[in-house]
Amino acid sequence: MPTENIPEIYIQNNNKSPDIFVYDFRMTSDVVKSKVNLSMNMFSFLQVGKKQVHFANTSMAVNNQQSLLLKKGNWLWTELLDTEAIYYCKLFFFSEKKLIEFLGKYTNDVKPYKEKVPYFVIENDDYIASFINSLSSNSYTNRNYSDVLITLKFEEILLYLLNKYGNKFEFYLHSLISNEVSPFKNIVESNVHSNLKLEEIAFLCNMSLSTFKRRFTSEYNEPPGKWLQDKRLQKARELLQGGELKASDIYLDIGYNNLSNFSVAFKNKFGISPTEITN
0.85 cut: is pTM over it? Predict the structure, then answer.
């Protein structure tokens, strides 16, 4: 069962990823199960059918009385619960940029909020049913004012759900804003003060050394060797200034194979030798 990257597979013009767009989705008995990697926030407005959605740490059954707001970054495994039926829904994708614009326009600032559940369940009602019927992937493409119209539809549903669910929904919207360190940065920064070599940190990132170096330079705007050396030497200075440790106690933990190389690098960085700090 291959993994599908959405919304990428639905975008006809691969050179341009729209900030908001609609896709009419059907799942038939020919495709009972599917794996999905979700790279944009998405409403899944269910119209016909029911299915089970499996997330990393939980799962839930969705029927045609419910819709979902799903957070980007989820890896989903879905399966039809009634293999004789057709599953039909409208997928409404929106970028983080558009969400930030909306929150700045209509809501108050709130403290960073991390929602543990990777989805928000929406109970369909007459208004939502009418809204879903008004969505069509053919209505907002290659037409005058298409971008304006679909932005208004985006604001319409968010405002309605804010009115319907109040703070609970507002908090969830704020939780969709990325404010966490990327997995790559998390691995790098958790090993800053270790004695691991670049090759070993690259391995932990599941990357070749050359790929790791390119990704690192893109993330931090400087080569990994220099960046790590500076961070480790700064840590060494803090330890030595504490007065309880000598250079011979720390050079291995800072990533140097011998005391001489550590002392030379330290003096080149700070203009004084490690012993001058401890004396």
Answer: no
